[in-house]
Amino acid sequence: MSNLILDIGNTFAKVAVFQQDNIVTWWRVERDDLLEKISSVLFENLIRKAIICNVSVVIPELESVFKAQQIDFIHLSATTPLPFRNLYATPRTLGKDRIALAAAAVGYYPARNVLVIDAGSCVTYEFINDQNEYLGGVISPGLKMRFAAMHSFTAGLPDLRDQPFDDLPLIGDDTKTGMQIGAAEGLAREIDGFIDDYKKKYSDLTVIFTGGDHEILSKRLKNSIFAAPNFLAKGLNYILEFNLNK
Ligand SMILES: Nc1ncnc2c1ncn2[C@@H]1O[C@H](COP(=O)(O)OP(=O)(O)O)[C@@H](O)[C@H]1O
Ligand SMILES: CC(C)(COP(=O)(O)O)[C@@H](O)C(=O)NCCC(=O)O
Asked: What are the positions of the active site (predicted)?
């Protein structure tokens, strides 16, 4: 018997299958292909429980798929019981993906000061203290969003969102390189800056780095981090077990 985990972000939906605490397999899909993917996963796996975490547009058919197959499910919301104390001042507006990241922090690093950085459409920073209290963090434009913004808000800058790049020089000697340095190296410096600030206050800080852009960004960081590609899915699985452990 397995758990189905759905993390619907603003760029991609991620689908994962867990057995107990272990991720068995996962896929990154476009939102439009999600229902088809779920059908094939349900056909190929014996799914008993599921959790939906959606920070993007509502997909009305989603719940009926689980109801039709009599799968117990949770649609993560502001009222879902959580394995940590949520001290966010506006819990109703807190992103459900951010709740999942905080849950993963307390599940995998209990009673520690943890900063979770998720480099997705936006870069989010979640701070959980050694009392298992979630305090909040930071919301910042993600890598693709930076490229998109430079293109959208100027007359002369190209759209570089889908242009691959690797090592970048200090000095950008053409438009493309200058923009790539600004977007990627600039974001890496932002991330290092926040890590440094948190470390000044919490010297024993554990830093977890996840999200679709974690690979391209982590190699540009000065600070050492723990790369955790499926950290959000692990947090969702933990919330699912916390609520439907029978
Ligand atoms: N194989 C890939 N295909 C497309 N995008 C990828 C791939 N690997 C990493 N990415 C990056 O992942 C980012 C989205 O990250 P993700 O964590 O899925 O965001 P969100 O949760 O906001 O949907 C994209 O902006 C893209 O730069
Ligand atoms: C900040 C986010 C857009 C991040 O979404 P993502 O980049 O992971 O798709 C999402 O967590 C959200 O909509 N948050 C609501 C505001 C808040 O958390 O306070």
From this structure: 97
Q: Whose CA is nearest to atom 15 of ligand 2?
A: 95
* Stated pTM of the model: 0.97
Residues 6+ apart with CB under 8 A from 160: 147, 150, 151, 176, 179, 180, 183
Closest CA to 11 of 142, 150, 190, 104: 142
Cα 12 vs. chain centroid, distance in angstroms? 11
Which spans in 45-201 are helix H?
61-68, 96-108, 143-152, 175-180, 186-201
Would the annotation count 134 as a binding residue?
Answer: no
pLDDT in tens, 1-11: 899 999 999 99
Half-sphere exposure (Cβ direction) of 18: Cα atoms closer than 13 Å: 23
For the segment 129-156, what is each residue's pLDDT rounded down to a tens digit?
999 999 999 999 999 999 999 999 999 9
The ligand that comes nearest to the alpha carbon of residue 144 is: 1
Interface confidence: ipTM more than 0.95? yes
